[in-house]
């Protein structure tokens, strides 16, 4: 693979010379070039084996996207921090072989993508208000921080990709539970979901039977009832990883999930009670939950337990035969040399069954 890297001093004649010298180049990167569109069109028309094109900053008009058809071998296109060089403020990407498309922090009104082989699409931090996708093979979709994208557009985008396995809609402030429900019906194989900073979702009455990784950060509507719905229904029975961060209304977590392996609970200011049961639970992080006073954990797989900055912790019940390490740093009731009532030192690398 040959990579061409240009800066803002490069001229079109230099690019032409380099393309002639390396006609079999498969990857081109252009960063900080004033005439990025002219240079990249020269490269695309000269390099018949071009597979990867990476552009950073600049203005790109409709002519650039039309020229993509001159790159039949192109599989990866990544554009960041760019704007549309036309009055229509619309972008249409059509390519038969493209597998990976990233339009990150792209300043545009409307984006249309028609790529039958596309597997991964990221529109992260882009300013569009309208999206139209025709990507039947899409597996990974990132719409995070698309603040102008309405709930209906997010819903229709995801639902147009029935093979979707990973969806990131974090910081899309208008997303609702109804959207997640509709997506779950159309995308039954969805296994990774990031709905962080979505203040309108409670995650109740949502069915996601294949979900394995769920991230909920700064979700104001997530409550103990939300967690109870997760535990009691069949919707997340194969959930393996759960992140709850800065969910201010959450007061307790009680989960009995047979496949849960990792859980992270951080900055939950009203959180007072934790009850976890999973035979394969391997990693637990509980940090900066100032009101938390009771923890009960049952797991034969747990080896490391992190309980940092627990100011109110008074009860710690553990049934963890293979526990090897416990971090209670900055927890005033359990100093590093504190002996638990079972005779197990907090810093000791020995099994710990129960301590209160």
UniProtKB/TrEMBL annotation:
Gene3D superfamilies hit by this protein: Ribonuclease Inhibitor
SMART domains: LRR_CC
UniProt name for this protein: FBOX
Source organism: Musa troglodytarum (fe'i banana)
